[in-house]
Amino acid sequence: MNGREKILGVEGGGTKTGWVLVERDDKELRILDQGKLPPSNFRLETHDRLRAIFRELPREIDRTGIFLAGCGTSEDRQSLLRLCAEIWPKAKIVTGSDRESGLAAALEHSDGIVVSAGSGSSVTGRRGDKIENAGGWGHILGDTGGGYFLSIQALRFILREYDSHHGEMQFTAKILHALSLNNLDELVRWAQTADKMEIAMLTPVIFEAAASGDARVMEIIEKGAQVLSEYTEAVASGLHLLAPKVMLLGGLFQRDSIYTHAFRRRLKKNLPDARVASAERGSELGAAWLAAEISDHVTFQSKLPENEIDNLAAALTEQRNPRSENLEKLNPRELVELFVEEERFVQDALRGAIVDLARAIEIVSASLRNGGRLFYVGAGSSGRIGVLDASEIPPTFGASPELVQGLIAGGAAAIHRSVEGAEDEKGAGAVAIDQRGVKGVDVVIGITASGRTPYVLGALARAKSINAKTVLLTCNPANLQTGIADLVINLAVGPEIVTGSTRLKAGTATKIALNIISTGAMVGLGKVYGNLMIDLHASNSKLRDRATRLVAQLSESDYDSARQQLEANNWNLRTVVAKIGK
Q: Helices H, strands E: what count in the chain?
């Protein structure tokens, strides 16, 4: 390698795509930048999807190593190589399986065994030039010991226990809660359409249950650890390694010590001299190392340099609220009075944003009338509020679910629980815009209380690049870059009662602002008659009752006559109201 070459390392799997940009500095690889993007399993994602993800990676590079789960054959490598050459036509490119990048990250050139457990699983060993593999056959026939396997076993266990004892378990309730489902029938329907990652995302619930002392759930974890241990023993035997170095890699080992302890305990019975340790470097660094074709004496820089980051502490919503500094000393009534009093700042913020909110209604209404759609984009609490408002439009106004959509960093799993790091990638926001097929006629409203969330800013930047209208809703407008959106709405609610907890005043103001914008746009589309919802879908008894009372009021008829009119028109409220108005 000549001079200071920039090298990109990428490792993609079912959970995420990890990447790192490095530069060779003397005899070390110095990290310049790194991050995470959506999953890029070679077998589970289309080439178009992979292109969209790769386009969010650094482009000005000299070499790149792209190592993806599912890229196992020579044909796969060549296919991936051709795809990468489209993105980096001038770079030297090496492609392969995530097994290889994991092996390089954990062992560099030394002998040993790498046990990887994330959404899937695999065991790979090396002695000299000889490689031995076990597992890694994908989630349909393999991946025993990975997150998908553990989750499937847990779901089968729930149904088996119900059929055997007809009793509800606490673990069942935790699973239903995590998925926002109501009963086992809904669980079965969900599982029939859920993909690998949606199912694998249940693993934190499984680990939590085991940690709380649920012995039967712990048996599921022990079974996964046992199979991985058996695979490790088989690989060690094939390589004639009596005291192998065994490196643990992947989210399941990193997330909870329970799995690591279970694996160690199982392995020690039949391979007592094995030296087990957790890998300190991510597989994306292994990918960069392989791309660099480094000799033995070149090493990784042990400590990552500090990157320049935004000073989030300067944000108004991150400041301490002097009115709540003695919060823990308040009795319940005093606490309630404080919360109620603080709501005046929400009202003040909304009043201060009246002109901008009215402009947002005009922008959205114009777009929807011209065949466009409205997209909310957010992370964490902001994302959940956007998803909530979007989900309320179809039943309230009879609109298509496609008309108003919510995008949240981390996907559906982030609606129910925090997805660590999901909000930190601009590229992931841009990819989400591409995947939803946002067009120039659409409107994208980015929601970020801090005004700094990379996922949101990336989505807005991509939306602007395709000439979609953009709106930023924030509670911290200071220091925003110029031109970040066509319209910036500032909801200056001030410091939160609990410092930095923007689900409080910021969240309340955000939900009201979205209520105003979406309702105003629906009114503009003629979705109301006076202040009555004439396009609601009478899909349940409550909504049928509401529709009947509405018709009775407008037609000045009795309840039964109104219901008969609706039944005669297949419960099409707009049709009935139109006839009344003639």
A: 22, 18
* Cα atoms in the 13 Å half-sphere on the side-chain side of 497: 21
Q: CA-to-CA distance for 491 and 489, rounded, in angstroms?
A: 6
Q: Which domains are assigned to the chain? A: 6-107+281-300 (3.30.420.40), 147-278 (3.30.420.40), 318-524 (3.40.50.10490), 534-581 (no CATH)
Residue type, 5: E
What's the burial of 137, exposed, middle or buried (CB within 10 Å: 0-12/13-18/19+)? middle
Within 13 Å and on the Cβ side, how many CA atoms surround 550? 25
Q: How does pLDDT run across 77-102, given as a tens digit for each residue? A: 888 998 999 999 988 899 988 888 88
Cα gap 417→431, rounded to integer Å: 22
Whether 90 and 63 have beta carbons less than 8 Å apart is answered as no
What residues are annotated to the active site? 392, 423
Q: What are phi and psi of 490, to 5 degrees?
A: -100, 120
Cα distances from 74 to residues 77, 81, 302, 462, in angstroms, run 5, 10, 33, 35
Q: Say if residue 561's pLDDT is above 80.
A: yes
- Phi and psi at 371, nearest 5°, equal 90, 10
